[in-house]
Amino acid sequence: MLQTLQIKNLALAESVKVDFSPGLNAITGETGAGKSIIVGALSLLLGERADKNMIREGEEQCSIEAAFSLPDSAGIDRLLDECGLPPCAGGALILRRIISASGSGRQFVNDSPATLQLLKAAGELLVDMHGPHDHQSLLKPDFQLGLLDAFADDEKLLAAYRQIFSERGELLGQKEALLSDSSNAPRELDLIAFQVKELEEARLDENEETEIISEHKTRANAGRILELASAVEQVLTESDSSAFGRLATIQPFLAELSRLAPQAAGWQEESKAITARIRELSREISSFAAKIDSDPARLQHLDDRLSLYRKLRNKYGGSVADLKNTLAKSKERLDDLQNLSERLGQIDAALKETRARLEQAGKTLGKKRREAAGRLAKETVRQLKALAFSHASFSVRLDETEPLSSGLDRVELLFSPNAGESEKPLRQIASSGEMSRVMLALKTILAAQDRIPLLVFDEIDENVGGQTAQVVGRKLSELARYHQVICITHLPQVAVYGKIQLAVRKKTSGGRTASEVHPLGSEERVKEIARMLGGENFTSVTMKHAREMMEKAGK
């Protein structure tokens, strides 16, 4: 429900704070007092277009803030999550809009910056407004169909239909993609086939590349490697003054030394070990040098392989692993292109089967809708007669259409308020008062199913009075059992049914006029009802009548 609405510097509202109650909230006041400011403020808060001329004269900006308490905030929480905003804490939701004279504006949801589109989307979940300032959801075909579905209680049938419709959409998307492929298939087929052939023939291998780089480096420097290896061999073992030869000459000296000095015994063994290691190292180097092959053909092969790796990297990018992945994807794509006709045939067969299921589900759904349409029309006429449309007629027309996400039906609500006039679509009805009463009739019928928490009616009692006005009041009271209702009214027969009553009055101070909103206590309500009955100069008779009306409505 809407708990509080705060308005600052909007038209005549300098600083207005209104606390609302569950149930029916009746707003009354003299003509021109500013009752429409409340509806206008709500409309702006729910995303309606702003005009800087709305800002109170002499001020730079105006602001509207509404605090809601939501027993079930799941729908709003999903909406906030889609926009990257946190959910409502404990069902608390605060909407705020600031409109500047410079033309800029800011919006906030729970103190987080938000877009105007988010306010609009939130408004569709929170408030249904009916009157000259509303967006009149009743005129929207989707809303009309939603009313019929709610009355028909066909949620399960609709969900089943939508599941099949979604499957069909996926298949159509796949077919569209394949058909798009088919227009370029010959050229792409040649290109992909060449890529697969090129990558397969390359026989790429991460280990081979590493080995090729190493071998190429060795073969490319074969001359210098042999030269260095020979020089090392000379120093180690081959020359007359080699390390091996010089160590061999000291062996007799170390043998005699070990006999004369026992602590030198290990030196001779260590010398022999060094001599053996030098000989082994020389042999390893000699063996390595013997294997060095400076064959130009082998070197050219290595050059060619390295060039191939570099070329494929430059062409397709990435590492050898990436090139292999490209090959795998290209082969998969090649298979798709080569089997395009077969795949299209499979999708067409699946589409045919899905279309048959969709039509069956749509017909089942349509049958239930048509059964409900007659009952809804009959019940609506009954409600409308109680709302002073004694000669009204109402019907629900369903036309077959191509598959839509909502079914195979397009709905149109038809209405005639007067005898002798043909029924016309609701969107062609000019009177907002008539529209509001039609909505009131429908809302009364569907009160239990409707999930929108707040209903706002403006000019609901236009061109009615007496007994009809009393019926309107009772209907609003019935509706308030399921929803919070705000009704701006000039009729006492309607106002007496309010759980609370708010009076809008104008006050002049310092040469400036401002609208104020006052909650009325019991005696204040009686005086306000008396004023509505007989004007400012009400008498004890009108006071008594007002009190009786209040008591009767309370019962």
Which structural class best describes the helix and strand composition?
A: alpha/beta
The CATH class of the domain at 2-136 and 434-520 is identified as: Alpha Beta
On the 0-100 scale, what is the average pLDDT?
A: 86
How many whole angstroms does the radius of gyration measure?
45 Å
Spatially, the strands of the biggest sheet line up as 2-1-4-5-6-7
* DSSP summary, beta strand count: 15
Number of helices: 18
Helix content: 55-70%
The profile of the biggest β sheet is: 6 strands, antiparallel
The CATH topology of the domain at 2-136 and 434-520 turns out to be: Rossmann fold
Uncertain segments are none
CATH superfamily placement of the domain at 2-136 and 434-520? P-loop containing nucleotide triphosphate hydrolases
Q: What is the overall shape?
A: elongated
> Roughly how many Å apart are the termini?
25 Å
How would you explain this protein's 3D organization?
- By secondary structure, the protein is an alpha/beta fold.
- Among the domains are: 2-136 and 434-520, P-loop containing nucleotide triphosphate hydrolases (Rossmann fold); 203-338, no CATH class.
- It has 18 helices and 15 strands.
- The chain has helices at residues 36-45, 74-82, 116-126, 141-152, 155-202, 206-220, 222-238, 243-249, 251-260, 265-291, 296-316, 320-338, 340-386, 432-445, 466-479, 492-495, 522-534, 540-554; strands at 2-10, 13-19, 24-29, 61-69, 92-100, 105-109, 112-114, 127-130, 393-404, 407-416, 424-425, 454-458, 484-488, 500-509, 512-519.
- The strands form three sheets. The protein has a six-stranded antiparallel β-sheet. A six-stranded mixed β-sheet has the order 8-12-13-3-14-15, sandwiched between helices.
- A hairpin with a 2-residue loop joins β14 and β15.
- α6 crosses α11 (296-316).
- The longest helix has 48 residues, at 155-202.
- The protein is elongated.
- It starts with a strand and ends with a helix.
